[in-house]
Design brief:
Elements (H helix, E strand, L loop, with lengths): L2 E5 L6 E9 L5 E2 L5 H6 L4 E6 L3 H4 L8 H7 L4 E6 L5 H8 L7 H15 L7 E9 L4 E12 L3 H10 L3 E5 L4 H11 L6 E2 L4 H11 L5 E6 L5 H6 L2 E5 L8 H6 L2 E3 L4 H13 L1
Parallel strand pairs: 1-8, 1-10, 8-9, 10-11, 11-12
Antiparallel strand pairs: 2-3, 2-7, 4-5, 4-6, 6-7
Length: 274
């Protein structure tokens, strides 16, 4: 029996820490809030990944208007998730015209996130993003996220490969970041799908059904729900501690607390099929 396994990245393969700032209230949330849940709370919120260097960002004058800076560098961005299908031009219009958000709002979350993760890991990948609100036409939150592989992830991937299992990543994170992670944990770059919205993840899973007898989706958040529904077998990992909606738990064929348990589940699937 041929098996393909699709993994989400942040919170699934990577232990992820986040810092989020509410621009309107000025409140900084640095207890690793779940940004996909925050996005899904309002149907007009869109989570957007920004292709910017966190190191370079810290050198920009903090009082500078953030939209002005993004327009100057002609920032490359990706729509990570949201409850609406939205044209990129609509997002760009908000990105390049918001009058309130300042560079300091992004610097603050980068600084807070780095402070937490640097105590836990020597090397990690940092992402920057925002949540825009289509209804209000503004940047509502700035976000920084950094993660590193959970213990045993590389060994788990190797074990799956030795069993002849094809392993993929489908994640809302930037492709360039995911490729570096894939190199680190042993997943071929051609099997990496970045800036994948929930709809895109589901399409990837569905397309892989033409190649494999069984397709498994492994995720940890609400943005993985559509892909889990499309999969033959769905695995919810709760190794990253956060609140999860009941619908996500109900959809899961398996709920695990250690990502390494995926190997045993695949073994069970192979046993049941023989």
């Amino acid at each position: 029996m041929s098996v393909g396994v699709v993994f989400d990245s942040a919170g699934t393969l990577l232990k992820t820490n986040r810092a989020v700032k509410n621009i309107k209230s000025g409140l900084l949330l640095n207890n690793s809030p779940e940004t996909t849940m925050l996005t899904f709370e309002d149907p007009d919120r869109i989570l957007v990944l920004l292709n910017i260097s966190s190191t370079e960002m810290m050198q920009i004058p903090p009082e500078k208007n953030f939209s002005e800076y993004l327009k100057e560098i002609d920032v490359v961005f990706g729509i990570s998730c949201g409850r609406k299908i939205i044209d990129a031009d609509c997002v760009a219009a908000i990105l390049f015209s918001d009058p309130v958000c300042c560079v300091s709002d992004m610097q603050e979350v980068i600084r807070a996130c780095w402070k937490i993760v640097s105590r836990e890991a020597e090397s990690f990948a940092m992402n920057a993003g925002i949540i825009v609100n289509l209804r209000t036409g503004e940047i509502e939150f700035t976000i920084a996220a950094a993660g590193y592989p959970f213990p045993g992830v590389r060994e788990m991937i190797s074990a799956l490969h030795l069993k002849g299992v094809a392993v993929y990543i489908a994640s809302g994170d930037r492709t360039s970041k995911l490729e570096l992670i894939a190199d680190k944990i042993g997943i071929p770059r051609e099997r990496v799908h970045g800036v994948a919205t929930p709809v895109t993840k589901a399409r990837i899973v569905t397309s892989l059904k033409d190649e494999y007898d069984v397709v498994v989706m492994v995720g940890d958040g609400i943005n993985d729900l559509s892909a889990m529904r499309a999969a033959d077998v769905s695995i919810l990992t709760v190794q990253q501690k956060s609140d999860r909606p009941e619908a996500l738990c109900r959809q899961a064929s398996y709920i695990i607390e250690d990502i390494r348990d995926v190997v045993g589940i695949v073994d069970k699937l192979n046993t049941e099929s023989s």
